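Narrative summary of target 7.
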Amino acid sequence: MLRCLVVDDDPEIRSGLAAYLQRFDMAVQTASDGVQMRRLLAASSIDAIVLDLMLPGESGLALCQWLQRERPNLPVLMLTAQGDPASRVVGLELGADDYLPKPFEPRELVARLHALTRRRVKAERAAGEQREVAFRGWRFDPMLRQLVSPAGVVVALSNAEYRLLTAFVEHPKRVLTREQLLELTRARGVEVSDRSVDLAVSRLRAKLGGEDLIRTLRGSGYLFDVEVGT
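Modeled conformation, tokenized:
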């Protein structure tokens, strides 16, 4: 049974979504804000979160950042306003795994939640089979989602940066186009721009100390220009 937490300040939406999701054999809890969300996460086992970005007080984007930092393996599906691509892109860059613009078809929400949890299980299994890799003094453990600098400092990664680095270490010395990186790193069905890939690469490059590990090949894409070992 999939255990889902719905975070929305509208009581009608909360109760309506909870009743609908329960019809599909989901155990659903609801929260109206970040305080209730954190309390429920501390007390319960949750498999996925449905998070509205337009929350009073602490925003959905702020909560998305907190979840990325504190619960990086917990799938987050955000609900956004129709025609608000900027918020969708920012939410995805801050760690959300998928989104649905309001109004949406409830059956699609069910399908996306199941898809998110299936992909997360597959990713965890695949990560469990991967060993720690090393490149130019850096160490990266896909299972622990941990990047350690040559000086031994643990470097925090967002979901987007983690997926991007995983794609690079799996394809070293190989040119990857923006389209390929989008396919390798985005949640299925999510429309994001090439620009979001460029921003994620820029942030990851900065976290790697600004070294020229990730080369930009104008008109071609990106190259992780370093030998990767174990």
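Helices lie at 11-22, 34-43, 60-70, 85-94, 106-129, 159-170, 178-185, 194-207.
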